[in-house]
Specification:
The protein is an alpha/beta fold. It is 43% helix and 12% strand. It has 3 domains: 6-70, no CATH class; 87-140, no CATH class; 146-226, Rossmann fold, CATH 3.40.50. Helix 1 (13-22) links the parallel strand 1 and strand 2 (28-31). The structure holds flavin-adenine dinucleotide.
Length: 241
Amino acid sequence: MDSYDFIIVGCGIAGASAGYELAAHGRVLVLERESQPGYHTTGRSAALFVQTHGPAVIRALARGAKNFFLDPPAGFTEHPLLTPRGMLLIGRADQSALLDHNFAQSSRHIASIRRLDRKAACALVPLLKEDYLVGAVLDPEARRRLRSAGVVVWLDAPPHTLAERVGSGWRRPLLDEDPAGTLSRLDAVRRPVYGELANVVLRVGGRRPQALAEDVIRASRTLLECGCSAGTGPAVGASSW
Ligand SMILES: Cc1cc2nc3c(=O)[nH]c(=O)nc-3n(C[C@H](O)[C@H](O)[C@H](O)COP(=O)(O)OP(=O)(O)OC[C@H]3O[C@@H](n4cnc5c(N)ncnc54)[C@H](O)[C@@H]3O)c2cc1C
């Protein structure tokens, strides 16, 4: 009969992870009653890495796992485990205290977390109904990742130019009604964020795509060559190029 140093019951992400770590210390058997690993909760996960979700112990586990996801051991995978996103936690008026609590807890560990009022939340996700919400908590971790990943270029076009360009076609349900108004509202909310993030701001105006593309390449090359783009500090050269 085979013998094992460790026997793990259940091969969801918890069992598989424990097995992976324990394999360095002895023979491991992972038992799973379903036809395949990860059949239950793990298989239903949306696969979002979020450090502000769940009770304190889960949040601590998520924070502890972060470096592994960002920089897995050599040979673990050929593909990045994380790609940048952000997360918006929304609440109704009767959930306002919960939202405040979540914000207070989360901002202790993640300084970039922001409390948004209903207008700002709806401008970020126009699908939301303004009269349903009291506000939201935004985890913009994804933005920091963008800044640390390379050069961020903001093609700054006024809302009326964007409205002319995108029109109100069936491909853009958000802009079906009042595209100019929607784009203006989005612009007001997003402008400070884009300004904070961008290494390079190119004013689009009526310029030709070819000329803009050449500017993007030139600016990116200059920043990459001088090593001025990476890092999480304040934007470098966030001005008109
Ligand atoms: C819809 C949904 C979306 C989610 N989205 C996210 C997300 O975006 N990000 C995130 O971090 N988390 C998310 N989660 C939570 C996350 O999926 C779970 O926290 C995680 O998958 C739990 O893993 P686990 O290994 O503990 O449990 P499970 O995945 O449930 O694994 C337990 C395994 O044990 C097996 N088992 C149980 N009893 C026995 C037994 N007696 N003998 C043999 N095998 C047994 C089961 O068959 C199962 O395969 C989501 C969850 C759901 C449901």
